[in-house]
Amino acid sequence: MRDDGVQGVAAMGELSGDEAKALAGSLRRLLQLSANLVERDGDAAPLIARVREHLGCDLSQVLSVATRFEAWEHVNLHRGVDAYLAAHTPDAEWFGVGGQHRGHEDIMGMLLAARHSMAYELGAADYATAAVGPEESVEVVQLGLVPTTAPDGTPVLVGIRGTNDYAPPMCRLEVLAADRAAARAVGGEIERLMREHDAFRRQVLSFGVSEHRGNELVTFLPRPSLEPDDVVLPDGVLDSIEQHVVGIAEHSERLLAAGQHLKRGLLLHGPPGTGKTHTVRYLMSRLRDCTVILLTGQAMRLIGQAAALARRLQPSMIVVEDVDLVAMDRGFAAGPTNPLLFTLLDAMDGVGADADVTFVLTTNRADELERALADRPGRIDLAVEVPRPDADGRLRLLRLYGRGVDLRADLGPVVEATEGVTASFIKELLRRAVLEAVRADGAGGVPVVGDELADVARAMADERLSLTNVLLGGQPGPAGPPGAAPFGPVPEPGTVNRGYYTFG
């Protein structure tokens, strides 16, 4: 004889279609009733109970107002929420959502799932680490909720959802409340506080791209500390750069009052290794209250985001290195025009003339640049050549890079032997000379560099090291007859000390 369970299965097998549908409907209603009973039982569903008790309504009446931000804004989102809590509910405590597969749902979705299937439960908030400076980081909420109130006293829950491995690289603010207007008011105030407490302001930032899902990254860099004597340029060139970039920043209020625009563009061009990046570093050091955003390589595709960030954090400076990679003149292009060129032009135009934003572009090939960069005022207002140093410049560079060294060399022969080289070459020359001095004298202390410095210069000029010469800014070709410049022909007159010129 079969047991009751087997008999029940057999009976179900004999049900008609309508009877099976009716049975399925009954089972579904039973499950729904069970879920509702569990939801009403605070001990059985503490997560739902916590939400319901604070908001004072059933979960079915809760509205969610969500705002998404770029992944790099996570630290600012956390700061905005912290500032809001400090003003309204300083003693509020975060709680979290526990359970598996949390990467697939937003916060409201997890609460609804917890109500119906017990898939999620009350837990502790999850935390992550985010940078707020070159050497400083803080904890930020990765996934959590915190009870607080709207400005009018309406109870709300504020949730933060950081980036995760199962969704696009964005962070998310969710405000839960029974009243949509209250939720929107809280979200708007948090966004305002995000900007007031922005961690990026007055920082040096570098945009980058991660190979992981194309994730955009923002990295904090230390701000250089350079003096005018640390920059070796032809007479008057550094003064012209400072007047154009720094001078406008120092007199921004009076310029605006006089109806003049603040946005400006600077192009630094010249051979590799002559000091273009070094000059940019000096400007970073000079403008200590300025937010600096660096773009290079693949990160150039983020020029639109960088321009928006620069406008928000003005006074600011956007540095685009090797701009010829994306802004080659369309007459040189063998194939379709690089779409990043139009993105760059749109970004430079879209910032607004009243914005205290400087675009600094560097290139080794100014002759190949798209003329549209200069055709409209406010894109590039000043172009400055950073040339190979003349004899006086090479002497100053030798003394600059020889600081910290007991330099006893006769520098005249070294200056003569390095005609046509760049600043980076002279820097490497001093490094090699110091290395040889350290190897020769193992006693320690300050290295002593004597007349062997000229021998090192001649060795570096050896034809066998022609590739090294080129990489360090020298020119290819044989050393030439005795007494000739060891790096081949010197640039034609007019290209070395041309200094600067203006567009427009």
Task: Write the topology of this structure.
Blueprint: H1 4-13, H2 17-40, H3 46-55, E1 63-70, H4 74-88, E2 96-98, H5 107-117, E3 121-123, E4 126-133, E5 136-149, E6 155-161, E7 170-177, H6 180-196, E8 204-209, E9 216-221, H7 237-250, H8 252-257, E10 264-269, H9 276-286, E11 291-295, H10 303-312, E12 316-320, H11 339-350, E13 357-363, H12 372-375, E14 382-385, H13 391-401, E15 406-407, H14 411-417, H15 423-440, E16 448-449, H16 452-460, H17 466-471, E17 500-502
Parallel strand pairs: 8-11, 10-13, 10-14, 11-12, 12-13, 15-16
Antiparallel strand pairs: 1-7, 2-3, 4-5, 5-6, 6-7, 8-9, 14-17
Helix pairs in contact: 4-6, 10-11, 13-14, 13-15, 14-16, 15-16
Uncertain stretches: 5-12, 39-44, 477-504
**Class of the largest domain, according to the CATH hierarchy?**
Alpha Beta
Structural class: alpha/beta
Strand content: 15-25%
Largest sheet: 8 strands, mixed
The total of beta strands comes to 17
Provide the number of structural domains: 3
Strand order of the largest sheet: 9-8-11-12-13-10-14-17
**Total helix count?**
17
- Helical content class: 25-40%
Describe the 3D structure.
- The structure is a single chain.
- This protein is α/β, with parallel strands linked by helices and 504 residues long.
- It folds into three domains: 46-196, no CATH class; 218-386, Rossmann fold (3-Layer(aba) Sandwich), CATH 3.40.50; 391-471, Helicase, Ruva Protein, domain 3.
- It has helices at 4-13, 17-40, 46-55, 74-88, 107-117, 180-196, 237-250, 252-257, 276-286, 303-312, 339-350, 372-375, 391-401, 411-417, 423-440, 452-460, 466-471, and strands at residues 63-70, 96-98, 121-123, 126-133, 136-149, 155-161, 170-177, 204-209, 216-221, 264-269, 291-295, 316-320, 357-363, 382-385, 406-407, 448-449, 500-502.
- The strands form four sheets. An eight-stranded mixed sheet has the order 9-8-11-12-13-10-14-17, with helices on both faces. Strands 1-7-6-5-4 form a five-stranded antiparallel sheet, sandwiched between helices. It has a two-stranded antiparallel sheet with strand order 2-3.
- Helix 13 (391-401) crosses helix 15 and helix 15 packs across helix 16 (452-460).
- The longest helix is centred in the first third of the chain and has 24 residues, at 17-40.
- It is elongated.
- Mean pLDDT is 80; it is low at 5-12, 39-44 and 477-504.
